[in-house]
Amino acid sequence: MADETVLSDDLLSQLIAVGEVDILVGVPTFNNVKTAGQVVRAVQVGFLKYFPRARTVLINPDGGSTDGTLDVVRDATISDFRTLMTSQPLRTLHRITTPSSGGPGREHALRTIFAAADLLRAKACAVVSAELQSVTPEWIEGLIRPVYKEQFDFVAPIYHRHKFDGLLITNVMYPVVRAVYGARVKEPLGKEFGVSARLAKAFLGTSLQAGQPFRPGVDLRLTTSAIRDGYLLCQAFLGPKLHAPNYEEPDLTTVLQRVVGALFECMETDQSFWLSRSGSEPTPIFGFEYELSLEPVRINRERMLQVFRTGVREFASILGPILSPETLQAIQRLAEVGDAEMRYPDDLWVKTVYEFAASYHHAVIHRDHLLQALVPLYLGRTSCFVAEHLETDSLDFKQRVEALCLEYERFKPYLVERWTPTK
Fold first, then answer.
1. Cβ(331)–Cβ(373) under 8 Å?
2. Which residues contact 43 (CB under 8 A, 6 or more apart)?
3. With b meaning 16 or more CB within 10 Å and e meaning fewer, what string describes 129-159?
4. Residue 263 neighbours by CB distance under 10 Å
């Protein structure tokens, strides 16, 4: 039974009026007036096109929008079903907009969505972002069908990215989650995902439990907890992930502190699960993976290397307690090399990340300062990674990422050794 304290009286009344459903899709919003209407229409067409006989509902928890997002969501309609489908809808398209329980914040929105899914006994639930302009009805099928028809518990997204889009994913997040948790989930912190009824309920009792302080990285925590607790995982290829033109990425320091900090926290929480594990297992992929040209990603390599060298020099006293003497000396030697010759090799980068993770665990310095010190090293590494692969085609780039993942797996005993030093 859902935690009714999460659901306001007004929302509870609307949910009771809808009754039990088969499929629930949540679309959290917060000032997404330019894209929210399109996302809502994509969800509705997805319901009608791929699940015409299912009982469905769209839940829109809003974090306090002031730009007209609520009006856009309420007014979003499909003007002509005949151009999209061969028949008229068989069921009512239920849609509920409600203030997010607890205020702004993704965790509040997810808690509202999962509590509603539990109350309505939804067999499959999915979450899609309102900030994207590339959500299509096929995304709804991709996230829902593996749960609704194939009995999977968690569907992680796979996006089609330019090779230099998501460098933090390819150089840190995917390979570390894979090596540590043993599951090959390519987008472990994707904001679009599908979940089964039993997993949605489990999230309410663990990762989204009422009363615990909210922390950044909730999507990563949901993925890792699903792996840790033995739920059946798969992935769905969704296509390109494109934000609205006015979307502003947070600065890199903020992203690293949130995302990598969340990763290290997960590793600490789940250490009894992963310390004795080795290797990794593939995670099934649904959907047709295709290639297409995407807008190139602008990267200022000269600026990145400048920050790297300045950081290595100015953070020397901070890096000392974090890194082993061998790793620190190797990085300091790199900082003396010219731009054209500089290479940050995989084995050195993997040891860098693992030593930061272990030092975070042992709290050798304030954790915020530790994560901040990782920023220049990450820029040095990714600058070299980009330079190395300017002419690499898609297939070779995938093989290159796979090689990096295997290096993370090969060095996992080194992580365990640093994580659990003998006294």
1. no
2. 25, 27, 58, 128, 135, 137, 140
3. bbbbebbbbbbbbbbbbbbbeeebbbbbbbb
4. 24
CB 371 within 8 A of CB 361: no
Pair 143, 156: CB distance under 8 Å: no
3-state secondary structure of 97: strand
Q: What is the DSSP letter of 393?
A: -
- Spatial strand order of the sheet with 23-26 comes to 94-99, 56-62, 23-26, 124-127, 193-196, 154-160, 233-240, 285-286
DSSP secondary structure, 293-344, as one string: --PPPP--HHHHHHHHHHHHHHTHHHHHHHS-HHHHHHHHHHTTS-TTT---
Phi, psi (degrees; rounded to nearest 5) at 31: 55, 60
DSSP class of residue 244 equals -
How far from the centroid of its chain's Cα atoms is residue 376's Cα? Answer: 23
d(CA 20, CA 117): 9
Q: What is the mean pLDDT of residues 188-212?
A: 88
pLDDT band of residue 305 (cuts 50, 70, 90) is very high
Q: Facing residues of 236 across strands? A: 157, 286
Q: Name the token pair of 175.
A: 């390979």
Q: Is 230 left (phi over 0), alpha (psi -120 to 50) or beta?
A: left
Distance, in Å, from the CA atom of 315 to the CA atom of 125, rounded to the nearest integer, reads 46
pTM across the whole model: 0.93
Q: Is 225 exposed, middle or buried (0-12, 13-18, 19+ CB in 10 A)?
A: buried
What are the backbone angles phi and psi of residue 408, rounded to the nearest 5°? -60, -40
CB of 21 within 8 A of CB of 57? yes
Measuring CA to CA, how many Å separate 154 from each of 117, 140, 222?
Answer: 15, 14, 9
- Name the residue with tokens 């907009």: 97
Half-sphere exposure for 295 (CA within 13 Å, toward CB): 8
- Distant-in-sequence, close-in-space partners of 395: CB < 8 Å, separation ≥ 6: none
Q: What is the mean pLDDT of the chain?
A: 91
How does DSSP assign 24-77, residue by residue?
A: EEE--BSS-TTTHHHHHHHHHHHHHHH-TTS-EEEEEEES---SSHHHHHHH--
Residues 316-339 pLDDT 10s: 999 999 999 999 999 999 999 998
Torsion angle in degrees (nearest 10) through CA of 63, 256, 300, 291: -70
Torsion of CA 126, 127, 133, 138, to 10 degrees: -10
Distance (Å, whole) CA 132 – CA 38: 9
